[in-house]
């Protein structure tokens, strides 16, 4: 095996890693599956990633990666010319690590628990409360990230993987109109990244026809 294989689903976080792969110029095969739907695709996904999550990345040689932030750091090492992260030792590098982990470890879990709250609480009022609480928490996190954004990209002049996270995640709750009103710098960063031809192509593949 000499190429990467990215297993993902349209509109999900796999769009972030797909955009990073496109920027890197690495050879990749895309495998789209309905990852929550029983069938051969999910069966294979569960064999590779017992958590059943997308994205799942298979490296040349067959090793499997299952966390998007780890994939980004690996791809930065594999294709440093793509500048997915700032230079080692720089202050921007420290900011990059902090914000990457905030998105992966703080923002992402609000979707894990809020997208299907009944999975964790059962149906009823508890599920509605969990959904509302995670939505509120996410909005607070986005406002805190907004305060740290530079422009034209998250860290200033350099497009990094952080911009890929932002441009994809502004398609998710609380949706783009909320960002326009409450986090205009994040909205501007998303627009700037979306203007890159390779990023634009990925967004079109994942979100064309989807409501914001």
Automatic annotation (TrEMBL):
The GO molecular function terms of this record are: transferase activity
Cite the entry's keywords alphabetically.
Answer: Transferase
Q: What is this protein called?
A: Glutathione S-transferase
Q: Which InterPro entries does the entry link to? A: Glutathione-S-Trfase_C_sf (IPR036282), Glutathione_S-Trfase_N (IPR004045), Thioredoxin-like_sf (IPR036249)
Keyword flag Transmembrane helix: no
SUPFAM superfamilies to which the protein is assigned, alphabetical = GST C-terminal domain-like, Thioredoxin-like
Protein species of origin: Bordetella bronchialis
An example Pfam family from this entry, by short name, is GST_N_2
Q: Which residues form the signal peptide?
A: none
Residue ranges constituting the GST N-terminal domain according to the UniProt record: 1-83
């Amino acid at each position: 095996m000499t190429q990467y294989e990215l297993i993902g689903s349209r509109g999900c976080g796999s769009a972030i890693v797909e955009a990073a792969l496109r920027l890197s110029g690495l050879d990749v095969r895309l495998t789209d599956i309905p990852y929550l739907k029983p069938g051969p695709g999910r069966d294979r996904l569960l064999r590779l990633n017992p958590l059943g999550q997308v994205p799942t990345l298979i490296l040349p040689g067959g090793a499997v990666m299952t966390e998007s932030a780890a994939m980004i750091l690996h791809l930065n090492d594999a294709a440093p010319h793509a500048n997915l992260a700032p230079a080692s030792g720089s202050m921007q590098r420290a900011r990059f690590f902090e914000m990457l982990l905030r998105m992966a470890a703080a923002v992402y879990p609000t979707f894990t628990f809020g997208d299907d709250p009944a999975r964790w609480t059962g149906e009823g009022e508890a599920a509605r409360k969990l959904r509302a609480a995670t939505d509120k928490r996410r909005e607070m996190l986005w406002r805190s990230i907004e305060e740290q954004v530079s422009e034209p990209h998250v860290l200033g002049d350099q497009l990094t993987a952080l911009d890929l996270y932002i441009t994809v995640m502004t398609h998710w709750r609380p949706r783009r109109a909320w960002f326009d009103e409450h986090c205009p710098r994040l909205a501007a960063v998303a627009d700037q990244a979306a203007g890159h031809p390779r990023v634009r192509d990925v967004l079109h593949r994942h979100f064309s026809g989807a409501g914001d």
